[in-house]
Specification:
- The complex is a heterodimer of chains A (117) and B (476).
- Chain A has one domain: Alpha-Beta Plaits, CATH 3.30.70.
- Chain A starts with a strand and ends in a 5-residue tail after the last strand.
- A 4-stranded antiparallel β-sheet of chain A has the order 2-5-1-6. A two-stranded antiparallel sheet of chain A has the order 3-4.
- Chain A is α+β, with helices and mostly antiparallel strands.
- The longest helix of chain A has 21 residues.
- Chain A is flat, with a radius of gyration of 17 Å.
- Chain A contains 3 helices and 6 strands; from the N terminus they run E-H-E-E-E-E-H-H-E.
- By secondary structure, chain B is mainly alpha-helical.
- Chain B contains 22 helices and 2 strands.
- Chain B has a two-stranded antiparallel sheet.
- The chains are: A alpha+beta (117), B mainly alpha (476).
- At the A-B interface, helix 1, strand 2, strand 5 and helix 2 of A face helix 1, helix 2, helix 3 and helix 4 of B.
């Protein structure tokens, strides 16, 4: 059994101006999905990334420059990640397809976590 | 490379196909069915969090932080709910959502109090070299006193009841007290409150803001209105308003006039709970309290029978079922029993409240085995007294319906027509519904259809509209 990271991308303005009720309707799907996977023993964990631009470090000849990550110019931003257990990529893909992220957003990236043994 | 090809294949071959489902099964160890939390259950828990727990937390925090921090309490609880909505989709539900919210809200309150203290020290203290840590400690111990200190002199112990008594402050006019309680204690929106008061939403919003300002301003005046100093006298003085608030809260939960849910059962049951607490507390128990508790128990007993199945959503929120069509086997006999006990206890003393009369009417319905056995004559007699006591056009509308069922629909209709000019009735769906039903009884289907159409135009919840469309169809 390997661990896979689901990287959840969304449009920068995806959650702007939503009413609490609208937001809650989306949240319900995600929470129910995480609960289901947890009950099945498939869910490892996850974190939401804070909204707003992050920082980008760039090494130059003179040193390290720090910039605000240019969020607004991107079509999508990384909103958070989840870790799941799956036998292989095919299973991970199958699980990820049931993720409500693919209902409420349009992109999800899967990366296998490097096994340690 | 083969792995990558597999992914491509999986992506291309199915969108939501069989192999996807198989993949889940292959990947997931067999789960104990009891641990699999149904989607609906999660949804219900989240909604309960957003409603019931939000107002309970506000009440709890205000009790601990004091009246002048009412808005802070509302804010930190709102922040905690948002934090939950951001965290739980990635972490899943905590074991105890209520405890989680409580902890987060309290921590946010700590932070705010600490910041408040720091800002004060910046404005009050010119010495730039002061030790912020020392100051923090002082603030924190103050917070700890707030949070864990022993309070004495409290007459009413339930934090929500205390908050209701606060909102029913003597310096507010009665309507403001009602609105403020519905907003602050129950978490209703200005729109909900506007619907129950038959007023405009914007006007309600302004009144709420004004009432809150007034309450805050009082805090500086040395008048004792600290929640924990509520004297026995103040409790007695405000009890009637409190009863009215609980009554309205139940009405809001029982028959919302907009939105999708016919019964916001949580809200109504919360009102029932508060009435039971009042009836059970030495400081607040009175005949009128028992009468209100009787009324709410008897009304709540019909919850399960009031709505029919909704085939689209596969739940029981689809359709309003009228009293005469209800399956009386679905009535909750336990609540009826409790209601009748309260009604008996309400007979002590001479005091007669509108709750006595309404509970009497509800009891007449609850004890009739079939709709045909309903004691309409007795109900009409109670309505006559209720009308005289309340002088309310809404009561008069209901009295007309009872009169029609008692066997004199012509007289009832004439009386209803005489009410037509009454202020606010033209926007009141039940008035048009009653008119439609009476006209049907009088074999005037075309006029009846017109009334049902007028009722649909008024703000009504989806199940009520569904019911009215059925009635409309029956008039053709």
């Amino acid at each position: 059994m390997n661990t896979y990271a689901l990287l959840l991308n969304h449009a920068p303005d995806r959650y702007d101006g939503l009413t609490e009720d609208d937001y809650m309707d989306i949240i319900k799907d995600y929470v129910a999905w995480v609960e289901k996977l947890s009950a099945e023993g498939t869910y490892v964990g996850g974190e939401k990334l804070a909204d707003g631009p992050g920082k980008t470090l760039t090494k130059t000849d003179t040193g390290i420059e720090v910039h605000d990550a240019p969020m607004a110019e991107l079509a999508e931003v990384l909103g958070g990640f989840m870790l799941i257990k799956a036998a292989d990529y095919a299973s991970a893909v199958a699980i990820a397809k049931t993720c409500p992220h693919m209902v409420h957003n349009s992109t999800l990236e899967i990366r296998e976590v490097q096994p340690t043994d | 490379m083969t792995e990558h090809d597999n992914i491509k294949d999986a992506n291309n071959s199915t969108i939501a196909g069989e192999s996807g489902a198989d993949g889940v099964n292959a990947a997931a160890p067999q789960a104990a069915p009891s641990k699999v939390i149904a989607h609906e259950l999660v949804g219900a828990q989240l909604e309960r969090m957003a409603r019931t727990q939000r107002r309970r937390l506000v009440a709890d925090l205000v009790t601990k932080l004091g009246v002048k921090r009412l808005e802070m309490a509302e804010d930190v609880v709102q922040d905690a709910v948002i934090a939950a909505m951001q965290s739980w989709p990635f972490k899943g539900m905590p074991d105890s959502p209520a405890a989680w919210l409580n902890r987060v809200a309290r921590n946010k309150a700590y932070d705010r109090l600490r910041r408040e203290g720091r800002e004060q020290s910046i404005t009050n203290d010119d010495e730039s070299e002061h030790d912020p840590r020392q100051h923090d400690d002082a603030v924190m111990s103050q917070v700890a006193d707030h949070m864990h200190g022993q309070f004495y002199g409290a007459q009413v112990n339930d934090p929500e009841l205390k908050l209701i008594f606060l909102c029913c402050h003597d310096s507010l006019v009665e309507e403001d007290r009602l609105m403020l309680t519905l907003k602050v204690v129950s978490g209703f929106t200005a729109r909900d409150i506007a619907a129950v008061f038959l007023k405009k939403e914007a006007a309600v919003g302004q009144r709420l803001a004004r009432a809150k300002r007034k309450l805050r301003a009082l805090d500086g005046e040395g008048t004792s209105h600290d929640l924990n100093d509520l004297s026995r006298f103040a409790v007695q003085a405000r009890l009637n308003t409190v009863l009215k608030v609980i009554y309205l809260m139940f009405a809001l939960g029982y028959a919302p006039r907009r939105g999708e849910a016919l019964i916001q059962q949580d809200v109504a049951l919360e009102a029932l709970r508060l009435a039971e607490v009042l009836a059970g507390a030495r400081e607040t128990v009175q005949p009128a309290v028992h009468a209100l508790a009787a009324l709410l128990n008897l009304q709540a007993s019909r919850f399960a029978a009031r709505t029919g199945p909704d085939t689209a959503n596969n739940d029981m929120s689809g359709r309003l079922v009228l009293l005469r069509d209800q399956n009386r086997a679905l009535w909750d006999t336990e609540l009826i029993k409790r209601g009748m006990v309260h009604l008996a206890m309400a007979q002590a003393g001479d005091a007669l409240s509108r709750y006595h009369l309404e509970a009497g009417i509800a009891a007449a319905h609850a004890t009739a085995k079939h709709f045909g056995e309903t004691d309409w004559t007795g109900i009409c007699a109670l309505y006559v007294r209720l009308e005289a006591m309340t002088n309310s056009p809404v009561v008069a509308v209901n009295a007309c319906v009872a009169q029609a069922f008692a066997g004199t629909p012509e007289k009832a209709f004439l009386k209803l027509e005489a009410l037509a000019g009454a202020e606010r009735l033209s926007d009141y769906a039940p008035y048009h519904i009653a008119r439609g039903e009476l006209l049907r009884m009088l074999s005037r289907p075309i006029d009846a259809a017109e009334s049902f159409q007028a009722a649909i135009v008024c703000a009504a919840s989806a199940p009520v509209i569904a019911h009215l469309q059925d009635r409309l169809a029956s008039c053709v």
